[in-house]
Design a protein that fits this description.
single chain; alpha/beta; TIM Barrel; 6-stranded parallel β-sheet; 3-stranded parallel β-sheet; 10 helices; 11 strands
Length: about 325
Protein backbone atom coordinates (compact mmCIF):
# COMPACT_ATOMS: atom_id res chain seq x y z
CA UNK A 1 0.00 0.00 0.00
CA UNK A 2 1.15 3.58 -0.67
CA UNK A 3 -0.08 7.15 -0.36
CA UNK A 4 -1.44 8.91 -3.44
CA UNK A 5 -1.74 12.67 -3.93
CA UNK A 6 -5.27 13.74 -4.86
CA UNK A 7 -6.70 17.23 -5.22
CA UNK A 8 -8.25 16.71 -1.76
CA UNK A 9 -5.01 15.55 -0.11
CA UNK A 10 -3.35 12.16 0.25
CA UNK A 11 -5.20 8.88 -0.02
CA UNK A 12 -4.14 5.29 0.52
CA UNK A 13 -3.73 3.47 -2.78
CA UNK A 14 -6.19 0.81 -1.63
CA UNK A 15 -8.88 3.49 -1.44
CA UNK A 16 -8.61 4.45 -5.12
CA UNK A 17 -11.16 1.78 -5.98
CA UNK A 18 -12.58 1.64 -9.49
CA UNK A 19 -10.48 4.12 -11.42
CA UNK A 20 -10.63 5.76 -14.84
CA UNK A 21 -7.00 5.83 -15.87
CA UNK A 22 -6.78 8.69 -18.40
CA UNK A 23 -9.16 11.66 -18.30
CA UNK A 24 -9.19 15.48 -18.37
CA UNK A 25 -11.19 17.91 -16.26
CA UNK A 26 -10.48 20.37 -19.06
CA UNK A 27 -8.02 20.65 -21.94
CA UNK A 28 -6.81 23.08 -24.55
CA UNK A 29 -3.59 25.06 -24.22
CA UNK A 30 -1.47 26.74 -21.60
CA UNK A 31 -2.81 30.23 -20.90
CA UNK A 32 -6.25 29.55 -22.36
CA UNK A 33 -7.87 31.19 -19.33
CA UNK A 34 -6.46 34.50 -20.62
CA UNK A 35 -8.23 34.24 -24.00
CA UNK A 36 -11.51 36.20 -23.84
CA UNK A 37 -14.52 33.96 -24.34
CA UNK A 38 -12.61 30.68 -24.41
CA UNK A 39 -12.56 29.33 -20.86
CA UNK A 40 -15.35 29.95 -18.34
CA UNK A 41 -14.24 28.49 -15.04
CA UNK A 42 -17.64 28.63 -13.34
CA UNK A 43 -19.09 26.62 -16.20
CA UNK A 44 -16.12 24.23 -16.13
CA UNK A 45 -16.56 23.61 -12.40
CA UNK A 46 -20.28 22.89 -12.72
CA UNK A 47 -19.71 20.61 -15.71
CA UNK A 48 -17.07 18.63 -13.87
CA UNK A 49 -19.03 18.28 -10.66
CA UNK A 50 -22.00 16.96 -12.64
CA UNK A 51 -19.81 14.57 -14.65
CA UNK A 52 -18.16 13.28 -11.48
CA UNK A 53 -21.56 12.78 -9.85
CA UNK A 54 -22.72 10.71 -12.81
CA UNK A 55 -19.51 8.70 -12.86
CA UNK A 56 -19.84 8.04 -9.14
CA UNK A 57 -23.43 6.88 -9.57
CA UNK A 58 -22.17 4.45 -12.24
CA UNK A 59 -19.63 2.99 -9.81
CA UNK A 60 -16.47 5.04 -10.37
CA UNK A 61 -14.41 5.93 -7.29
CA UNK A 62 -11.40 7.77 -8.78
CA UNK A 63 -10.35 9.65 -11.91
CA UNK A 64 -6.79 10.25 -13.11
CA UNK A 65 -6.55 13.70 -14.73
CA UNK A 66 -3.63 13.75 -17.20
CA UNK A 67 -3.58 17.44 -18.10
CA UNK A 68 -0.17 19.06 -17.68
CA UNK A 69 0.39 22.82 -17.81
CA UNK A 70 0.87 23.00 -21.59
CA UNK A 71 -2.41 21.16 -22.27
CA UNK A 72 -4.49 23.72 -20.38
CA UNK A 73 -4.31 22.52 -16.77
CA UNK A 74 -6.16 24.86 -14.38
CA UNK A 75 -5.14 24.49 -10.74
CA UNK A 76 -8.01 26.77 -9.66
CA UNK A 77 -10.42 24.32 -11.30
CA UNK A 78 -8.95 21.53 -9.18
CA UNK A 79 -9.36 23.64 -6.05
CA UNK A 80 -13.01 24.45 -6.78
CA UNK A 81 -13.89 20.87 -7.72
CA UNK A 82 -12.11 19.68 -4.57
CA UNK A 83 -14.18 22.09 -2.46
CA UNK A 84 -17.33 20.36 -3.78
CA UNK A 85 -16.12 16.82 -3.09
CA UNK A 86 -19.10 16.14 -0.82
CA UNK A 87 -21.37 16.62 -3.86
CA UNK A 88 -19.59 14.21 -6.22
CA UNK A 89 -17.53 11.91 -3.97
CA UNK A 90 -14.85 11.05 -6.56
CA UNK A 91 -11.11 11.12 -5.90
CA UNK A 92 -9.17 13.09 -8.54
CA UNK A 93 -5.43 12.65 -9.12
CA UNK A 94 -3.82 15.40 -11.21
CA UNK A 95 -0.58 15.44 -13.19
CA UNK A 96 2.66 17.21 -13.82
CA UNK A 97 4.63 16.52 -17.01
CA UNK A 98 4.39 17.66 -20.62
CA UNK A 99 2.21 17.11 -23.64
CA UNK A 100 3.21 16.35 -27.26
CA UNK A 101 4.81 19.67 -28.18
CA UNK A 102 7.60 20.09 -25.65
CA UNK A 103 7.66 23.69 -24.32
CA UNK A 104 10.47 25.73 -25.85
CA UNK A 105 11.99 26.43 -22.44
CA UNK A 106 13.02 22.76 -22.28
CA UNK A 107 14.79 22.72 -25.68
CA UNK A 108 18.28 23.28 -24.25
CA UNK A 109 17.60 22.07 -20.71
CA UNK A 110 19.04 18.79 -19.46
CA UNK A 111 16.80 16.05 -18.03
CA UNK A 112 17.78 16.76 -14.43
CA UNK A 113 16.47 20.32 -14.64
CA UNK A 114 13.22 19.17 -16.23
CA UNK A 115 12.94 16.53 -13.50
CA UNK A 116 13.29 19.25 -10.85
CA UNK A 117 10.24 20.99 -12.30
CA UNK A 118 8.22 17.76 -12.17
CA UNK A 119 9.42 17.01 -8.64
CA UNK A 120 8.48 20.49 -7.44
CA UNK A 121 4.88 20.07 -8.61
CA UNK A 122 4.72 16.68 -6.89
CA UNK A 123 6.48 17.46 -3.63
CA UNK A 124 5.87 21.21 -3.16
CA UNK A 125 2.55 21.74 -4.92
CA UNK A 126 1.39 23.27 -8.20
CA UNK A 127 1.76 27.03 -8.70
CA UNK A 128 2.22 27.70 -5.00
CA UNK A 129 -0.98 25.91 -3.97
CA UNK A 130 -1.56 22.90 -1.75
CA UNK A 131 -2.63 20.83 -4.79
CA UNK A 132 0.09 18.25 -5.44
CA UNK A 133 0.54 16.31 -8.67
CA UNK A 134 0.23 12.57 -8.11
CA UNK A 135 1.36 11.29 -11.51
CA UNK A 136 3.62 12.30 -14.42
CA UNK A 137 2.22 12.71 -17.95
CA UNK A 138 4.20 12.25 -21.17
CA UNK A 139 2.95 12.33 -24.77
CA UNK A 140 4.73 10.67 -27.69
CA UNK A 141 2.93 10.96 -31.02
CA UNK A 142 3.87 11.66 -34.64
CA UNK A 143 6.45 14.20 -33.43
CA UNK A 144 8.73 11.34 -32.43
CA UNK A 145 9.37 10.66 -36.12
CA UNK A 146 10.41 14.25 -36.92
CA UNK A 147 14.18 14.32 -36.77
CA UNK A 148 15.09 17.36 -38.87
CA UNK A 149 16.42 20.60 -37.42
CA UNK A 150 18.86 21.79 -34.80
CA UNK A 151 16.89 20.49 -31.81
CA UNK A 152 14.85 17.57 -33.02
CA UNK A 153 11.43 16.74 -31.54
CA UNK A 154 12.76 13.24 -30.89
CA UNK A 155 15.63 14.49 -28.73
CA UNK A 156 13.28 16.80 -26.84
CA UNK A 157 10.85 13.96 -26.19
CA UNK A 158 13.63 11.66 -25.05
CA UNK A 159 14.90 14.31 -22.62
CA UNK A 160 11.44 14.65 -21.07
CA UNK A 161 11.14 10.86 -20.80
CA UNK A 162 14.45 10.65 -18.93
CA UNK A 163 13.33 13.52 -16.74
CA UNK A 164 10.06 11.75 -15.98
CA UNK A 165 11.89 8.56 -15.01
CA UNK A 166 14.21 10.44 -12.65
CA UNK A 167 11.32 12.38 -11.10
CA UNK A 168 9.29 9.19 -10.67
CA UNK A 169 12.13 7.51 -8.79
CA UNK A 170 12.76 10.60 -6.63
CA UNK A 171 9.13 11.27 -5.71
CA UNK A 172 7.60 7.80 -5.93
CA UNK A 173 4.82 8.56 -8.43
CA UNK A 174 3.92 6.64 -11.60
CA UNK A 175 4.18 7.74 -15.24
CA UNK A 176 1.32 7.61 -17.73
CA UNK A 177 2.00 8.09 -21.44
CA UNK A 178 -0.11 9.28 -24.35
CA UNK A 179 1.28 7.27 -27.27
CA UNK A 180 0.61 6.69 -30.94
CA UNK A 181 -0.13 3.00 -30.65
CA UNK A 182 -0.07 2.23 -34.38
CA UNK A 183 3.60 3.29 -34.39
CA UNK A 184 4.35 1.17 -31.30
CA UNK A 185 5.80 4.16 -29.45
CA UNK A 186 5.48 2.38 -26.13
CA UNK A 187 8.55 0.36 -27.07
CA UNK A 188 11.14 3.19 -27.26
CA UNK A 189 9.62 4.72 -24.12
CA UNK A 190 10.10 1.51 -22.16
CA UNK A 191 13.64 1.25 -23.53
CA UNK A 192 14.46 4.67 -22.07
CA UNK A 193 12.76 3.91 -18.76
CA UNK A 194 14.70 0.66 -18.44
CA UNK A 195 17.92 2.51 -19.21
CA UNK A 196 17.06 4.93 -16.39
CA UNK A 197 16.51 2.04 -13.97
CA UNK A 198 12.75 2.53 -13.66
CA UNK A 199 10.48 -0.29 -12.52
CA UNK A 200 8.24 -0.63 -15.59
CA UNK A 201 5.37 -1.71 -13.35
CA UNK A 202 5.07 2.01 -12.53
CA UNK A 203 4.44 2.90 -16.20
CA UNK A 204 1.21 2.99 -18.20
CA UNK A 205 1.43 3.04 -22.00
CA UNK A 206 -1.79 4.75 -22.94
CA UNK A 207 -4.14 4.96 -25.91
CA UNK A 208 -3.27 1.36 -26.60
CA UNK A 209 -6.73 0.38 -27.82
CA UNK A 210 -6.07 2.53 -30.90
CA UNK A 211 -4.46 -0.64 -32.25
CA UNK A 212 -5.53 -4.28 -32.58
CA UNK A 213 -1.92 -5.52 -32.52
CA UNK A 214 -2.08 -7.85 -29.56
CA UNK A 215 1.50 -9.04 -30.03
CA UNK A 216 2.65 -5.46 -29.44
CA UNK A 217 0.35 -4.95 -26.45
CA UNK A 218 1.20 -8.27 -24.82
CA UNK A 219 4.86 -7.45 -25.37
CA UNK A 220 4.48 -4.24 -23.36
CA UNK A 221 2.81 -6.13 -20.54
CA UNK A 222 5.42 -8.91 -20.66
CA UNK A 223 8.06 -6.28 -19.95
CA UNK A 224 6.11 -5.22 -16.86
CA UNK A 225 4.22 -2.14 -18.05
CA UNK A 226 0.52 -1.49 -17.72
CA UNK A 227 -1.38 -1.20 -21.00
CA UNK A 228 -3.80 1.74 -20.94
CA UNK A 229 -6.95 1.03 -22.94
CA UNK A 230 -8.24 4.52 -22.41
CA UNK A 231 -10.14 5.52 -25.50
CA UNK A 232 -13.66 4.26 -24.93
CA UNK A 233 -15.67 7.14 -26.39
CA UNK A 234 -19.34 7.13 -25.41
CA UNK A 235 -20.36 8.50 -28.83
CA UNK A 236 -18.55 5.75 -30.79
CA UNK A 237 -20.58 3.30 -32.91
CA UNK A 238 -21.47 0.01 -31.24
CA UNK A 239 -19.10 -1.99 -33.46
CA UNK A 240 -16.17 0.28 -32.52
CA UNK A 241 -16.94 -0.05 -28.82
CA UNK A 242 -16.99 -3.84 -29.30
CA UNK A 243 -13.64 -3.74 -31.14
CA UNK A 244 -12.03 -1.75 -28.34
CA UNK A 245 -13.67 -3.95 -25.73
CA UNK A 246 -12.30 -6.98 -27.55
CA UNK A 247 -8.77 -5.72 -26.94
CA UNK A 248 -9.48 -5.54 -23.20
CA UNK A 249 -11.01 -9.02 -23.21
CA UNK A 250 -8.03 -10.45 -25.07
CA UNK A 251 -5.57 -8.89 -22.62
CA UNK A 252 -7.53 -10.29 -19.69
CA UNK A 253 -7.74 -13.76 -21.25
CA UNK A 254 -3.97 -13.65 -21.84
CA UNK A 255 -3.47 -13.18 -18.10
CA UNK A 256 -2.79 -9.44 -18.17
CA UNK A 257 -5.92 -8.03 -16.51
CA UNK A 258 -3.78 -6.73 -13.62
CA UNK A 259 -1.69 -4.85 -16.20
CA UNK A 260 -4.54 -3.37 -18.22
CA UNK A 261 -6.42 -0.20 -17.27
CA UNK A 262 -9.53 1.46 -18.67
CA UNK A 263 -10.51 5.06 -19.40
CA UNK A 264 -11.95 7.46 -21.96
CA UNK A 265 -9.47 10.31 -22.65
CA UNK A 266 -12.50 12.57 -22.32
CA UNK A 267 -13.45 15.87 -20.71
CA UNK A 268 -16.75 17.36 -19.58
CA UNK A 269 -15.53 20.86 -20.52
CA UNK A 270 -12.94 21.09 -23.27
CA UNK A 271 -11.22 23.86 -25.20
CA UNK A 272 -9.57 21.63 -27.78
CA UNK A 273 -9.99 23.32 -31.15
CA UNK A 274 -12.17 25.97 -29.52
CA UNK A 275 -14.91 25.38 -27.02
CA UNK A 276 -16.42 21.93 -27.30
CA UNK A 277 -19.92 21.08 -26.05
CA UNK A 278 -20.29 20.39 -22.34
CA UNK A 279 -20.60 16.63 -21.87
CA UNK A 280 -21.43 15.43 -18.34
CA UNK A 281 -21.81 11.84 -19.62
CA UNK A 282 -18.27 11.65 -21.00
CA UNK A 283 -17.04 9.26 -18.28
CA UNK A 284 -19.86 6.71 -18.53
CA UNK A 285 -18.61 4.60 -21.45
CA UNK A 286 -16.50 2.30 -19.29
CA UNK A 287 -18.79 1.79 -16.26
CA UNK A 288 -22.12 1.83 -18.10
CA UNK A 289 -21.23 0.12 -21.39
CA UNK A 290 -17.83 -1.56 -21.59
CA UNK A 291 -17.93 -3.33 -18.24
CA UNK A 292 -21.27 -4.89 -19.14
CA UNK A 293 -19.96 -5.86 -22.59
CA UNK A 294 -16.90 -7.50 -21.04
CA UNK A 295 -19.00 -9.43 -18.55
CA UNK A 296 -21.39 -10.57 -21.29
CA UNK A 297 -18.56 -11.74 -23.55
CA UNK A 298 -16.65 -13.83 -21.04
CA UNK A 299 -14.68 -11.64 -18.66
CA UNK A 300 -14.88 -12.82 -15.05
CA UNK A 301 -15.66 -10.61 -12.09
CA UNK A 302 -12.03 -10.99 -11.04
CA UNK A 303 -10.90 -9.77 -14.48
CA UNK A 304 -13.17 -6.76 -14.31
CA UNK A 305 -12.00 -5.90 -10.81
CA UNK A 306 -8.38 -6.10 -11.97
CA UNK A 307 -9.07 -3.94 -15.03
CA UNK A 308 -10.88 -1.25 -13.03
CA UNK A 309 -9.12 -1.39 -9.68
CA UNK A 310 -6.02 -3.55 -9.34
CA UNK A 311 -4.09 -2.35 -12.37
CA UNK A 312 -4.01 1.35 -11.52
CA UNK A 313 -3.40 0.72 -7.84
CA UNK A 314 -0.39 -1.43 -8.74
CA UNK A 315 1.24 1.39 -10.70
CA UNK A 316 1.13 3.70 -7.68
CA UNK A 317 2.45 1.03 -5.34
CA UNK A 318 5.31 0.09 -7.69
CA UNK A 319 6.26 3.76 -8.01
CA UNK A 320 6.20 4.32 -4.26
CA UNK A 321 8.50 1.34 -3.76
CA UNK A 322 11.14 2.98 -5.97
CA UNK A 323 11.37 6.25 -4.03
CA UNK A 324 14.92 6.99 -3.02
Amino acid sequence: MSNVHTINGTLESAALGRTLSHEHLTNGMGGMERVPGLYDEAEAVDANVEALKRARAAGIDSVIDLTPLDLGRQVSLFQKVAARHDEHGVNVVCATGVYRWVPSYFFRVDPDEIARYFISEIDDGIEGTDVHAGIIKLAWDVEYHLDEGFMTPRSQLENTARAAARAAKASGVPISCHTRAVDELGTPLLDIFEDEGLDLRAVTIGHSNDTNDLDYLKGLAARGATVGLDRFFVQAPEEELARRGGVALAMAQAGYAEQTSLGHDATPYGCWGGRTPVNPDCWLGVPAVEVNWLRDTGASDADIDALQTGSVRATFEAAAAMKR
